[in-house]
Every structure is written in C-alpha cells, then in structure tokens.
Fold each of these.
Amino acid sequence: MIVRLAREVWETALGRLQVEVTRHNYETWLKDTVGLEYSGDVFTVGAPSAFVAECLEKRMTPIIHKTLKALLQREVTVTYRVVHAGIAAQDDGGLSLRAPAPAAPARERSRPQGNSLNPRYTFASFVVGKSNHFAHAAAVAVAENPGHSYNPLVIHSGVGLGKTHLLHAIAHHVQSKGLQYLYVSAEQFTNDFVSALRESRVEEFREKYRSIDVLLIDDIQFIAGKEHSRETFFHTFNDLHLASKQIVISSDALPRSLPLLEDRFLSRLEGGLRAEILPPDLETRMAILTKKAQQMHIAVPPDVVDFIARKVPRNIREMEGAFNRLLAMAQLTNQPLTLDLAAQAVADLPTVAKRPATANPQEIVSATAAYFGLTPDDLRAKTRKKNIAHARQVAAYLLREDTNRSLAEIGQLLGERGHSTVLRAHDKIAYELNLDAELRKQIGEVRDSMDQRRSQSA
Ligand code: ADP
Ligand code: MG
C-alpha cells in the first residue's frame, strides 16, 4: 500500500509540476521519476540516475516540496533514490520508470524520438461506457488493422476524458505486433521540426516520420497557431496517408473549430473517422473508480465510490485526483475509507456546475480584472508579470467555461493571444482547481461578483 500510494501521489504531483516548471526542466529532470515510498513524513522519489537525483535535489526540491505539501496537506520531507529498470514492470497502476536507455544501435538512434508510453494506459484498463464506446471501438479497430480501417482516426473530447489513454493503448497494441509506431505530442512534433529547421535537417526529419507504420499525434490543437509546423504536419500527413500508414490524432476541440484544419486538410480528415468522447455517465465513472481500486488491490466501499463519482462528474483526471487524495488521507490518518473521510477529501472541490453559456465575455474580462485589482487593459497587455498572468489565466478559464466563445475569440479578448496559449491557461487553472482551495475561492468570488452586478442592474 505504501508503495502504490506513493506512486499515485507522485503521479498527481507530476501532473501539477508539469504545468509549473518549464517544459525543458520537466522533460530533463522529472519525466522519468517515480514515487517510491511515503511513510512517516518522508516522501521518496525514484530517479533514473545519480545525476538526475542530484540535480533534482539541488534545483527542484523547493517546488517538489511545495507541490507534495499542497497535495498531501501536511509537512513532508523529500528524499531521492536512484532506481533501476524493472520497477516499471510490476505495473499495478504505477508510473512508468523508463530504464536508462542502453546505447542504441545506430539504426535505432536515427528513429524519431517519441514521448514515452504510460504502461497503465492500455485497452485492458480502459472502461467502456456509453460516453466512449464509439471512440473505443474505433481505436481497437485501428489498432488491429492499422492503415486499413479508419484513416485518419481523430479522437476528440474535453480535457481529462481519455484521449491520451486511447492513443497509448493503440500504441501498446501495435507495438506488440512488431509495428513501428511513433507517439508524439503536437508540441513535440513542433519542437522537433523547429530544431530540424535550425540544424538544416528537414529532409532527415521528413524521412524519419515517413518511415513509421503508425503515427499518433496527441493534442493537435497545439499545432494550430504555428504556420510552419502546420505546413510540415500537412506534408507528413500526406506522405503517410498516401502510403496507407495509420494516423491517429487527438484534439480537445472539434476539428472544425481549429484553424489548422481548414480546407484541404479538413477534407482529408473527413475521409477518415472522427470519434468523440463525451463526459462519462455516473455508472461509467463508478466503474472507472472500481477498476482503479482493484488494480491497486484496495477495497473501497461502494457508497464511497458512488460518492466520489457523483462529486467529480466532468473530468476523469480530476475524479482520479480526488480519489487519490482520499486514499492518501486514509493512509495518513490511519482511518478506514468511510463516507465521512470521502466528504473531507472532496470538501473544497469546486461544486459550481458548468454554467449556461450566457455570460457576457466583456463582463468576465472586466470582473476578473477588478477582482485582482487590475484593469482590462492590464489583462490585454504583453506583460508576463506574475499577478497579471494569473489574472489573465483565470479570465481565460472563465471565458472558456462560462461562454461559448471559440479559443480564437477568447485570445482576441485577452489581447491577441494565440489559441494554444488560451487553451494552456484554461487547462492550467482547470487542473489546479483540483488541488488549490485558494484558487477555487477566487473563481467562485469572481463569478459571484458578476452575479451581484447583474442583480443590481436588474
Ligand atoms: P485526455 O487526454 O482526454 O485529457 P487522459 O487520457 O489523460 O485524458 O485521461 C485522464 C485520466 O483518466 C487518465 O488517468 C486515464 O487513464 C483516465 N481515464 C480516462 N478515461 C478512462 C476510461 N474509460 N477508463 C479508465 N480510465 C480512464
Ligand atoms: Mg491528453
């Protein structure tokens, strides 16, 4: 239990760290770490090498400490230990720890690097329900018969509903059949391309991408605003498509609403299949939690599962976060998993349901600015000053949650900001809402201030 819990807690912490540290720091130091043990007040993080362990200790301890403390809601001491391959093998819901890569043979090395797969994201661990059975069936068909069933397959949904899980599941499956796959985030695709450009290796870049059987691109919306990468992606896409290689794309917006997917690209996409994942119904949410508990070999009373599933309806990642928090609390305070404890674990989760899409966007901008003691112009200014950036992120969150404006329109409202900037700001706040009571309070108060103004003027 100690080991499993440490893994879960660390996985949640990593999610949060990912939005807090730079991408470079995350990829270099944090990505391959694992939660090893949590007992007493000591949390032990496993690192793939002594070097990484040392750097983590020197550079990252303050933020890791802060994150764990917030997550566990108590003081904690962080230590690091070097661990070697094999830990990942016993997959009971833990995080993958990549083996320190052995020196790759030359041919291997020239393959494009993808993001690593989470061993937990398989078809076997994916719970199928009304909300996702179509996307699941399409993913299975593509995994069994890549390049021949639906090409491309586009999976789209809101945040935290299983897109990445399905993409990884396809990758695991085709890997087991000995096919070459590449799983990349659209962001990484863009970065790869930009460095290929810089180093005059564009031909090589294209050659590499062309040589695989299955290309999985996650979060395509990140490419949308970047013209050069978009163009390259289009060519890569065409090359692969013509060669009947399978392409799978995930997007958290409707393809139509992405500027990337205009005209020629859209017509290509529509030759394939688009599958949407909807927010899961209560039954499916309960099944997901039950499965998770089984994987962890923890007995959770049905009324507790029911309670958590009802409390966090819209985002599976958040629901899992609440569940992990409950398990952490139970272990820390040495209490059984009761309804009472579950109520405490979700006590300060946001309860404000998604509002009807009627809020006035201008009003959101001015109310948010006013709440933080700023002006709407401050929010639109170029500055990245921390307090202003935070207020701007909150505004982006509210605009996306409470209005039906597109990302592009929201970007305009916030001073010509790009589509992916808005999305990232929204997702950052959405994620942190799960962990940060102060933030939940802020969002609630901004919304209240608008309600008040409205009722005064009515
Ligand atoms: P997205 O990529 O759409 O934001 P993820 O694939 O990252 O969402 O899913 C968020 C979390 O929810 C992951 O831990 C994932 O394993 C879990 N999850 C989502 N859908 C399911 C499902 N149908 N069954 C089991 N777990 C799921
Ligand atoms: Mg995802």
Note: The two ends are 56 Å apart (CA to CA).
Amino acid sequence: MTLGTPISRLFMVGPAYTNKLGRLNINTVGDLLYHFPFRYLDYSLVSPLGQVQAGETVSVKGQVLSFTNQYTRRRQTIQKAVISDGTGQLQATWFNQPFLKTAIKTGQSIFLAGKVEFFGSQKIMTNPDHELVDQFKPAIHTGRLVPIYHETTGVSSKWLRSRIAVLLRNQNLLVEEFLPSILIEKNSLAELRESIEQIHLPNSLPKLTQAKQRLAFDEMFLLQLAALSRQKAWQQKKLVCHFQVDAQKLAQFIKSLPFPLTAAQTRAIGEIMTDLQKDQPMNRLLEGDVGSGKTVVAAAAIFIASLNKVQAALMVPTEVLANQHFLTLNQLLTPLGIKIKLLTGSTHQKQVDDFDFLIGTHALIHQRAVFKKLGLAIVDEQHRFGVGQRAQLINQNRQAPHLLTMTATPIPRTIALTVHGDLDLSVLDEMPPGRQKIKTWLVPAAKRRAAYAWIRQEIQTHRSQAFIVCPFIEESTHESLQSVRAAKNEFTRLQTKIFPQLKLGLLHGRLKSTEKVAVLKQFQQQKIAILVATPVVEVGLDIPNATIMMVEGAQRFGLAQLHQLRGRVGRGEKQAYCLLFGENLGHQGRQRLQALQQAHTGMELAEIDLQMRGPGQVYGTSQHGFFALQLASFTDHRLIKQTRQAAALVMPSLSRYPRLQAKLKEYKINQVEPN
Ligand code: ADP
Ligand code: MG
C-alpha cells in the first residue's frame, strides 16, 4: 500500500465513506495521512479517580459497575454509567446516545475523558469521550493528546482518528522518505514516517513539535524547489529573436502619451527594456494596485516588439476586459502603425491572422490564433489563468517569447519571493496623481433603507451611477447558477420595489457576450443608472461616471478583492463612495471589513487580511489551493530562509535524488497556480 492507493481500498471504507471523504478532498491514502489535525485535546493526564480535582480535564480508567439507559417524558434518553478504579468512583452521563448500550457493558474496562465536576461528593463527567481498554492497542481517543480534524457530515474526528490509527499501524504501508539525508541532517529534521505518525497521534508535546517542524519544512521547501525548477526550465528556453531597444523612439512614444508617467511606471518600463535586450526570454511579473497604470507599461513593451518586427499577444481573463483593452490600446498603438486584432469567444472569424498585436481571452489558446512570430506574450490578471493555459500561449513555437505577467493582487514581498521565486518582479507602488480616496462605510443592517434613499438621491442630483454587487453564493471564485439566480432576484427586487423610477441593468457571467457588451454600453452611455452584477465586474472595468459601489455579503470577499471592486469607482473627478453590507458579522468580521474604511492601498489590506485570516483564506485554499499550506507560515522568515537555502543546495544535483525528483514532479502536477 502506498500514498497513492485509493481510499476506497481501505478497510471499513465503503462507497458511502469514499464519497463523504471526497468532500474533504481526501481521495487517496496519502490525502488521508496529510489531513492533519488542526488542534489537540489534552487528555494526556491519566488520573486515579481518588485524586481528580473538580474542574480538571483528565482521562480516567476504570471498570464499569453499571450502565443504564433511561427514557424521559419527552422521548429523550439519558445514558448513565458508574465506573470505579479502586481509588474512587465516577458517574458519566450522556444525552440521547442509546447506541452506547451496545458498546459499554458492565464489567468492562473503559477509559473516559473529559472535564470532571463534583455534585456534592459525587464525581461526574457529562458527555465524556469513551474508549474500551484494549490490552493489545494503545488508546487513541483518550489518555493522550487527542487529534481533532476538520470534519464533514458523517465523518467525525473520532472516525478519522480510528481509520488513521489503523493505517499507521499497518506495516505494509509505504511512506518513503523523499528528503535527501543531507537536508535531514543539516536541518535536524525528524524522519517523514515518524513525523506523520506523531502529528496524528503524538506521544508528547516535544514529539509533536518536531513532527510539525518537519512537515512544515516539506511544505515550504517544495514550494521553493518548484519555483527554482520552473526558473531553470525557463532559462533553458531559446528566445525567438534578439530584440533591439530604440531608446529614442521609446522616448517619443512616452512623450506622446496623454499624461506624464509616474516614477514607478518609468522604473518598470526601464526594467522591462533591460530584460528585452537580453538573450534570455524575459519572465517578469508586474504587480500594481488597481488603477496604478499597468496598461501603458505593457503598451511600451508592445511598441518595442513591433519595432522588432515580431508579434505581440495580450491574454485577459474576460471578454469585457478584452474589449476594453482593445479600445484603449487602439488609441495608443494604431497611430503608430501597429495592426491590432481582437479574438474572443464571440469573434466571428474563427482564425485571425495578419496582425502585429492580438488581444484576446482564453480563445487565444483554444481557437488557435495563428502567430507567425510571437515575440512578446503578456498575461493580464495572471492569477485567473492556470499554469497550463499560460504554457499553451507561450509554447506555440518551440522558441519562447518574452513573457510579461501582470497582477493587481498585492502579494507581500516574502510571499512573492517564495512562490514567484522564478519571476523577476516590478512593482508599481505609486498611483497616478490626483486620485481621490473612496469614502467607504460598513453599513449596519438597520440603515439599509436610508442607504437606498441616499443612493437614489445621489443619482438624481449628481447624475452619477452605481454598481450593486451580489456575492458568489458558494465560497468559490467561480460563478455558479445559484449565484446568477440570486443576482437576478436582487435585480428584480431592486427594480420593482426600491428604485422603480430609475433604470437598472443586470450583468452576470452567464449572459451571452453580445448581451454583456450591450448592457455595459448602456451603462457607459448613462442609459442605465444602476448596474446589478455578480463580481464579474471585479476585473478591470473602467466607467468614470460611476461613483457608488455597493457590495452585498461583503463578508464573503477577501479584503483585496473588495478593494478591487471598490476600484471600479472613483476613476473620474467626482467623489466616490463604497457601501459594504455584511451578514452575521462577528466582532472579528466587522473589524476586518472596517479596515477598508481606513486603508486605501491593496498592499495594506492584504497585510491586514493576512494577519486576520491567514494566507490560506486570503489566497484561497480549496478552490485554487496554491497556498494550501497547512503548517508552514509565510510569516516564518526563518523557515523561508532555511528552505530557500535547502532548495538551492539540492537543485543543481536534483538527478541524484530520484525520490525527491519524483515527489517534485507529483507536486507540480497537483500544484495550482501561484496566487
Ligand atoms: P491598471 O493598473 O489597474 O491596469 P490602468 O492601466 O487601467 O490601471 O490605468 C488606470 C487609469 O489611469 C487609466 O485610465 C489610465 O489612462 C490612467 N493612467 C495610467 N497612468 C497614468 C499616469 N501616469 N497619469 C495619469 N493617468 C494615468
Ligand atoms: Mg488593468
């Protein structure tokens, strides 16, 4: 049996449990073993009954003197057991667990674990955990540090614990050490198999700590090694053709722009130009907040590509954005004699050719745009694409183009260096001048009517426009039918009940693209006052007259994502506003959203979210689970440094470590895209 063995082959795991485990993303033996506990109950204190104190959480071991199952008047049941260990007695009480009758029998030896209370001189435990004493097997639910897992309906921690314990006792289970011994020694790490055993069923706290250290090391180390190996693969690529950068023409181009560049834009363009003149293909990430002006930076690179007589491509995640980029870049580049074409899912032409620069959605790869000589590939909002999709764009020829990826997702530097260790980084850390702050409020439910009245008045007196964004219903980044339905219902309600005198529009991802374009055009031409939308508007949309962004179910969004949504307004002269509505916010939830009232940069907000929710939540775990670090933390600078050194040490001689190589390969297959 190996880590790859399907979970259904395990003893006592039938089709029903296989399904249930699937909900926890547990499909193989390895998945089950890597489903680590997130906390432990300390039942390690095993106390003689004569010595337990009131209020103590302990395990006790005794003989069952009696067990009764009583019915109450309301068809409830109560189970009572009395146990004794010779030094004292204790009464355990459970509610509505009649099945215990078959498990606990008079005369048996049993462990109970829980909190002891005194009722007069009588010692009692309510709803304790119980476990029969088995002289051949150590206890797993009592008398030790007891692991608690993320559960799902029908799969309890107790169930997981017993399955995992059986697995770990199985001598035929193969858990191969994949770290080279040099790394184990150098970093004083525990062995893999032992660490997996100890993280589930720790013998002691120090053993648990060691196990966590080892497994956290693995997580961060593989992340870094994967980045290094991507870097190596990239460096071995041959560039399509050598670029010349004509500094004079570039300067003219920059002078012809309708605005002076910010210092950050100038710096980023400089860094890109340096890359373009190298014989290695560029692999650079341009990171800049919403509205920081990434598009003109890209335009400068496209201009240089055209001077070098190669084609350029820009891939964007949505059709709306493709259309928008097409308009903006047309204005900038067509006067320079650059032939631009657009390719999206709804482009009638199934194949486009005869262009210098092609803008498009995923259609660029799916509909096989015909490139004669692709010299520069740009991917906007790169986190929306998978590794595979990007690879398809750049690998159409055997030789590689220069690659520029752009993102508005603020990634703190330590994280960027770890997960994007293979990319060079340019950061636009400065906004074009004259941007105003968007006034942001977290609105309490009681003020909802007042908020609607205020929006109505703003629109009527200032002729401004508003977005009302409905959340994704599921915790997912993809729009489901259910989310679309919710947005439709909200649209109808708002149009008929709240804003009958205004014209509302509806935008969601399931509209046909011609419908989308039509709605947006109406909104742009101010024929629609309020656009009700799912978060499809998040990405890149530019409507300068819109000044109000209202977000429903704000608690479902990350702060950076809310910041992106907020960035849809405040692009013109008028003061802009963002109104957030949340449901069932706890104290922490409220605090988190209130951060948006004060913080106005994506980076600031990312740091706050990172502190409050952790990287798993912020950068998404289950859906696009790149940051699915269970144990390691991006705030652990020591671990980051240690693992970076380790990765650099083994990378040059990776072929000497076949097990590590295999692990890395499997890791990269399962790995979802950074950020
Ligand atoms: P993003 O980084 O979000 O892609 P854009 O490139 O869409 O940002 O730019 C946002 C807006 O700012 C656009 O309307 C663009 O014309 C404008 N802009 C970009 N750079 C400058 C600048 N240096 N000065 C003034 N306006 C600028
Ligand atoms: Mg943009």
Note: The chain has a mean pLDDT of 87.
